[in-house]
Design a protein that fits this description.
Layout: H1 12-21, H2 24-51, H3 56-63, H4 67-74
Helix pairs in contact: 1-2, 3-4
Length: about 80
């Protein structure tokens, strides 16, 4: 086994493998978990861009969403300015 590989079933690489090549009863929970990981990663990257001065319009373009959709989804997660 490659030392960089892991048998951890929550590892994104293992989840992806299971999602695409596993039996349906194993693949569906893996897909659900991947979806949660992707949502969290997306949120973290959106907030990083905002902290670095990116506009909602710029982020919306990157996500292929409208400015309004992007703001509605992510603005509640933005820390309030004090």
């Amino acid at each position: 086994m490659n030392p960089n590989e892991t048998t951890d079933p929550t590892n994104p690489t293992n989840l992806t493998q299971t999602a695409f090549h596993g039996q349906p009863a194993e693949a569906l929970p893996a897909i659900r978990h991947l979806r949660q990981l992707l949502k969290q990663a997306e949120l973290e990257h959106v907030m990083t861009l905002r902290r670095h001065g990116a506009t909602w319009r710029h982020i919306a373009k990157l996500l292929n969403l409208s400015h309004q959709q992007t703001h509605k989804i992510y603005a509640p997660w933005e820390p309030t300015q004090t």
